[in-house]
Each structure stands twice: as C-alpha cells, then as structure tokens.
Fold:
Amino acid sequence: MSLESLTEEAKKAVMAFDAKKSVEVANKAIAEKVDLVKLIENGFTKGMTEVGVLFEAKKLFLPHIMAAAQAMNAALNVLTPELEKTGAKISEGLGKFVICSIEGDIHSIGKDIVAIMLKVAGFTMFNIGRDVPLDDIVKACKDNNAKYVGTSALMTSTMVNQKTLEEKLKAAGIRNKLITNVGGAPVTQEWANSIGADVYSENASDAVAKMTKIAG
Structure:
C-alpha cells in the first residue's frame, strides 16, 4: 500500500477508536517500509486532532478522546521500536532534553510524539509527563544537567505557564544554560518571542529540524 493510503487508514482508525485497526496499519507501514514519521504526523496525529475538534464542538465527549488516544498509542507502541532502531544508526549524544506538558495541561500525545522523534534524532530524552508543576520542571533540568527543555501547552489558559517557567529558570540561575522550546496548538512564534523562549516548534518534524540544527 502507498503511504497516502496508509495515512488515510491511520487517520480513520483513530477517529473510529479502533486500536486493532491502528496496529494493523502500523504493521503494514513497517512491512511496506514507508516513512513512519509522515505516517504518524499526517495519519494518526491528524486523526487525533480531528477528534479534538469534534470534542471542542461538543460532538464527542471525554470517553471518545480516551478511546482515540488508546487507538493511537496502540500504533505508537508498534512504531516506536522501529523508529528507535533507525535513530540508533543516525546519531547519538546531541544533549540531554527535558520535555513535558506544562502545568495545568493534561494533553500528552503531541508531546510524546515530539519526544520519540527527538530521541530518534539522537537527543537523550527525559519525558517527565503531563501537567508537570513548574518547580518540578526546573528541578528536572537541574537534576539531569539538561541542555534543552521543551514544554507543550494545548490550551490558551496554560500558555501563561510557559512564560512563568522562563522566569523560574532565571530565578534558579540556570536559564542561560538552557535552550527553551515551546509548542502546542495555540502557541505561535510571536508568543515564543514575547516570553523569551529560544525556539518555537510547530510540530514534531519542525522540532527535530530546529533542535538538531542548534545541537549541530
């Protein structure tokens, strides 16, 4: 099957909350040796985004979001080892990278995809979860001697915590030792500029391209 066909199947599987179908698509993609990154971003992730739009419009509800996430995660469990195998041959040691969903934000799928892709690219990843208190993010950066920290905010109400994190990193005396990366649906380059973040990432591919260039 072509990448386009598999991508469409991946999107439909997530929107149908069909974990079995998602795994089937993932296995087909591996067998066909298609671009797994594009499959994830243009298939599974887009399906999840569409579910999110329907949820916001009150056409779907929280159990639907959870079922869609389960379908997507079932596929990622199959695809991640393949991505990591490829990544092991590409590069290693680009630096320690702490990543999480910002305090107040329970969304994690997009952030998890970025973490996988950065790991594949050669970063040492510390994915510390979702709804992570700002002080815990600062502590994780210190404890792991991180060179990079990335935060995802999927709601405008939690974006402000990305700004507060910049301030807390300065207060802790480690801001000048870090490259900060911000992302998430409502986040923009303008927002990143306004809060003093170093990098804005639109999606996983954008994050990898920008961060590997910096690590270069």
